[in-house]
Amino acid sequence: MATTTVRLTIQSPDLTSDVLSISKAFNLTSASGTGITQTSGLNRLDGLNSITTIFKAADFSNDEAYLFVSNLAVSKAAGFQVELTQGSQKVAVIQAGDSILMPIDPSALDIKLTAPTASTDVEYQLFHNG
Questions:
Q1: Nearest Cα to 20, choosing from 34, 36, 9?
Q2: Which residues touch 17 (CB under 8 Å, ≥6 apart)?
Q3: CB crowding 11-48: b at 16 or more within 10 Å, else e
Q4: What is the pLDDT of residue 126?
Q5: What is the pLDDT of residues 66-117, one digit of tens each?
Q6: How far is CA 48 from the centre of its chain?
Q7: Which of 9, 55, 87, 123 could bridge 111 with an S-S bond, Cβ 3.0-4.6 Å?
Q8: Residues 69, 126: Cα–Cα separation, whole Å
Q9: Contact, 120 vs 46, CB < 8 A?
Q10: Whole-angstrom distance, CA of residue 11 vs CA of residue 53
Q11: What is the spatial distance between Cα 74 and Cα 120, in angstroms, rounded to a whole number?
């Protein structure tokens, strides 16, 4: 069984009246509690500027997965955001320099990325079972 550990840290000295510091570590697991056994490998899209399907639902029979997406753009200007959609439903807007890791059902609908008005570099990876 593979073990894949995620470490998440959120810190801010001035967001609240107290210093904010949250640290969590967890393993990527399926509903049965077993470790995630497969990955798509780290993929990169250079110059994303239209709707691009990154994973087709028809390629997956299992509904348990984790999706990682990183918007590599450094400009915070409008147009460098990346929209994540599943089917026609917008799931997230990833700002320049930001990343997400989220549980997702890759067998439900196609997973797509869009950078509406600018060429943007993006990395993505799916962690899944079968």
A1: 9
A2: none
A3: eeeeeeeeeeeeeeeeebbbeeeeebeebbeeeebeeb
A4: 97
A5: 999 999 988 777 778 999 999 999 999 999 999 999 999 999 999 999 987 7
A6: 16
A7: 55
A8: 9
A9: no
A10: 34
A11: 9
Alpha-carbon distance values, 87 to 54, 109, 121 (Å): 12, 5, 22
Q: Which two tokens stand for residue 20?
A: 């904010």
DSSP string, 71-105: E-----STT--EEEEETTEEEEEE-TT-EEEEEE-
- Give the sign of the dihedral formed by CA 122, CA 118, CA 79, CA 83: negative
| Reported pTM | 0.90
Distance from C-alpha of 28 to C-alpha of 62, rounded to nearest angstrom = 15
Token output for 64: 């348990």
